[in-house]
Amino acid sequence: MKGLTAAYGPVPALADVTLDFHEGEVVAVMGRNGAGKSTLLHHLVGLRRAQRGSVEVLGRAPAALSASEAIRLVGLVPQDPGALLCAETVAAECRDGDRDGGLAAGTTRAVLESLVGGISGGAHPKDLSEGQRLALALAVVLAPEPPLLLLDEPTRGLDYGAKERLSRQLRQLAARGHCVVVATHDVELVAEVADRVVVLADGEAITDGPARSVVCHSTSLASQVARILAPAEWLTVEEVATALAERPGHRTTP
Length: 254
Prior knowledge:
By secondary structure, the protein is an alpha/beta fold. Helix content is 36%, strand content 19%.
């Protein structure tokens, strides 16, 4: 993304943004509502063309790709996951996902089960809970394992267990070389999965650095653990538990 500038009529959305995203990393894009997070994702997936500047994914402009080409290169789960769901049943949605992604039968359903199990195949997507609907949309986008995965506020409506399973999926995708970009306000998700944080403000990228450094030194972006244990740079309970267990003579209480 080089010198990307965008606006909605007279309202500026992105101002000369230059960023690189790399395989194998999870990048959290953070900032207040209206900072430009969703607009940035929409350019990366090709829903919007650059008014000025350029966007390329593996050397190709997403906005110039056909739908069949785009689905194998970049995937987006938008803030309204229902916008991706068009079939009459969950089973049909999963079958369509397998067909559109050129996947073996049952692939999308298996991803759905790994996120939220027990959803009836005969249920209409509109009758699902918000968390179940989000999980279904995530499964449709995650199943083809595109090199670039974009998630816009992906934890809304998910319970703790589903969030943990999603975090595990994102870490596994990054470990296999995918690039994951997450626009989110969820600082706990960022602490769990992000390697890097980009902060937008009024359409400008004002911060771009390692997640630990950015999160631990920001009063507004810090996780609960980081706030409690500042100035020590701890992000999660698991990190603290591991550090304590490694101390000489320390014993954990069952």
